[in-house]
User: What shape does this take?
Amino acid sequence: MKNPYEALGVALTASPAEIQSAYRKLAKKLHPDLNPGDKAAEEKFKEVAAAYDLLSDADKRRRFDAGEIDASGAERPQHHYYRDFATSDQGDPYADASGFADFMDQDDAFADLLRRSQRARANRRGQDLHYHLAIDFADSITGGTKRLDLPDGSTIDVKIPPGLVDGQTLRLKGKGAPGTGKEGPGDALIEVAVRPDRRFTREGDDITFELPISLTEAVLGGQVRVPTPTGDVTMSVPKGANTGTKLRLRGKGAPKRGGGQGDQLVKLKVVLPKAADPELEAFVSSWKDKDYNPREGRAS
Assistant: This one.
């Protein structure tokens, strides 16, 4: 911990009035209520308040100057580390009014700020707690409830809304850290990661799925089964379908925020048999249109 004289910027021979004046000047500059969200200023204020707490007490100052206690007020030569300091009665002078009690009876704006800060700390809402939850792609489309294991061994049931997107944060009211005084607990903020599904690709509210079809289905058409996040459905493949042909399954995509449902786009891919088929080879060889050019009319 920093030397209290250095923290306040005063000499070893500084009078009590000089110490109080130095602290008051720094507190006005660094007080957390005057620097909302500035963690560096808050840490500096705690350091300055701890220094003032020690040097404003004549007995503590005497013992520090004599080397009997260290800057945190701990007896020497006992060594105290941050975790000990943070949980000691003197660890956080910002947690109560002891660090600025000399100013509490003064009638000015800064004293009023300190009084209001003290009251606010006595009734403080609990902190929000942050968690991460991974879910399957299908659950992000259909919704559901997932159980989240917490570090302390407890669990939270998280309701997944239909149509959730990767990286979305869900807020569970009152599931955070407990508050103090009259204030209630904070919230649990759960960032949800959607596991990729190699079958589906989401594009806004629509879903794309690539469906392999046989040569027979491509030429003659037919009924085929198509997977969707909510289960398989039957779809008609038109005659003469090609690789790259896109068919639309209406209402099989993700739920829309304004109501309704996106679509699932089925992209066809013609796949020939893995094993050589002499009969198919013979047919193609004798086919009168075998020399047609599928690249004709395309840019080179």
About this structure: The chain has nine helices and eleven strands. The domain at 4-122 is CATH 1.10.287.110 (Helix Hairpins).
